[in-house]
Design a protein that fits this description.
The chain has seven helices and twelve strands. The chain is an alpha+beta fold.
Length: 297
Amino acid sequence: MLSREQIEFYNENGYLLVENAVSPEELAKMHQITLDFIEKSRNVTESDEVFDLDKGHSAENPRLTRIKLPHKQDPYFWQVLTQSRITEILRQLLGDSVLLQTSKLNTKAPDGGAAVEWHQDWAFYPHTNDDMLACGLFLEDVTEENGPLQVIPGSHKGPVLDHNSAQGVFCGAADPDDPDFDIDKAVTLCGKAGSMTIHHVRTLHGSAPNRSDRARMILFYECGAGDAWPLMGAGNYLQRLPQGEQWADVMDRVIIGEPALQPRMEAVPVRLPLPPSPDIGSIFKVQESGGAKSAFG
């Protein structure tokens, strides 16, 4: 459970670092499942519905940027989300109705694993309100050297920055030269395995390349209040599904309570992620193909 001080800190700064977010047993099992997936990736030669491969990936040297939708690849990731301390943290921050937006397991490879350029998650999937956040569970110790998450405190209360490149397409990254991008205020979030970051959907954040000799494994759950519904024009697969399949998909993503049939409309700033970049397979592909300008040199 979070303390009142932790909740107030999150509300004010748009991020939080929580220690011991899961039990040692839960952590150990998720870590082993992840290692097993990396081992399986040795037989994969192109990115697919499970693996997002990094440059230099081979059977001898598996290099991944991401395991996609881990809660669908192994049911234990869903079990932890819905039956652990994480569940109660979500209840405290989002209320008695919470839905999963998506999940991803970023396995940033050693010695140059890809950076995630600075962005706001809200730019990818604006909703009717912004009671949304991302939890990043450390499956191994995260240090300064292996590309930790960085955030700009308070940026969740500011504008939604332009995430379109000079090419005129959505590139999934803010321009480092934007006057509203104050990188000097950046905070780096490191910690022991089992710790968890939380950042608001509008918090500006990114992570540098992995310069260490080990992978950086962070399991991300992106979640929202049950009365936050996606807007048309956002990159959301729901819009392509028939109505019945939409509802079934929503119900499959319920973490707590039930989805609200009356969306809560708030006066939140919105930019639609259009026109799309040439490759929308992952944030890495969006940023690369869209011509994102790097803030990491």
